[in-house]
Every structure is written in C-alpha cells, then in structure tokens.
Specification:
Blueprint (H helix, E strand, L loop, with lengths): L8 E5 L3 H13 L3 E5 L2 H8 L6 E5 L7 H9 L9 E5 L4 H10 L3 E4 L4 H28 L7
Parallel strand pairs: 1-2, 1-3, 3-4, 4-5
Length: 148
C-alpha cells in the first residue's frame, strides 16, 4: 500500500503498447507512479523484485492471459493481496464471473474512461488501507487473532 509520503505505484499490464501508454499517462496525471509490463510473464518477473500497490491487468494477451496471471498472483503470498483491476475488451458476464472467482478486485471494459479508472483505483486503494488498518487494530486487541 502506498505510504502517505509516497504516491501509489500502479502496474499496467497489457500487450498493446498504445494501451499501456494511454493508461500510464492517465496514472501520471493523477499523481500515481505507473510501472509498465508488456506481458503477464513480464509482470510476474518484475514483481519478484518490485512491490506495487495495484495492478491494471489486460485479460486477452498472448502467451499468458489475465486469468493465468491472476492465478499466479493469488497463489504467491508476496503478491496475493495486491488489488487487481482487470481491463478488457471482452466485457461479458462469463469473463467477469471467472475474474471474480479468481480474485480480481474490479473489472473495467475498454475503452476505459480516465475518471472511471481513477475512481476505481482510489476505491481499491482506500478499501485495502481500511482492511489493513482494521487487521492491525484487531491484532493489537487480540494478538495473533488475525492471519497476515
């Protein structure tokens, strides 16, 4: 989670360089730090050395689709709690249901409007901060009661 003195770092994962550029510009304009990955495997590789606060993930990518990336993220204790907003041109109920089943935090259809994207990012980051603060408070009240 972003620290008060540090802007949130948001990873953009998409095989389309134009989409990565557009989303990164949106993020930078809002004061976020964009981190760019051109594929699912690049995302996972980068996360071995770098921590991000949220991931914007394309669903349809060659080599490794968004579902495979989410599975890998959620199966790794170091990345399992990173909120993932899936962004895709495939905006149907089955795609959303599968994403949610796998642990995606939110879902947006392309083309993404900047205001909508920024609002969803803020909501996810605030929700994560609230959950962590609650867990910390419960841990102070009953040490060991909350699994981290």
């Amino acid at each position: 989670m972003a620290k008060p003195n540090r802007p949130a770092q948001i990873m953009v994962v998409d095989d389309d360089p134009d989409t990565v550029t557009i989303l990164s510009r949106y993020l930078a304009r809002e004061g976020f730090v964009p981190v760019e990955a051109g594929s699912g495997s690049e995302c996972l590789r980068m996360l071995q050395a770098k921590t991000v606060d949220l991931i914007l993930l394309d669903l349809m990518m060659p080599e490794m689709d968004g579902y495979q990336v989410v599975r890998a993220l959620k199966n790794n204790p170091d990345t399992a709690e990173i909120p993932v907003i899936m962004i895709t041109a495939r905006d149907d109920i089955d795609a959303r249901a599968e994403g949610i089943r796998l642990g995606v935090s939110d879902f947006l259809a392309k083309p993404v409007l900047r205001r909508q994207l920024v609002g969803r990012i803020h909501a996810q980051l605030e929700g994560l901060a609230t959950a962590r603060a609650t867990a910390d408070a419960l841990d102070r009240f009953a040490p060991g009661a909350v699994k981290k």
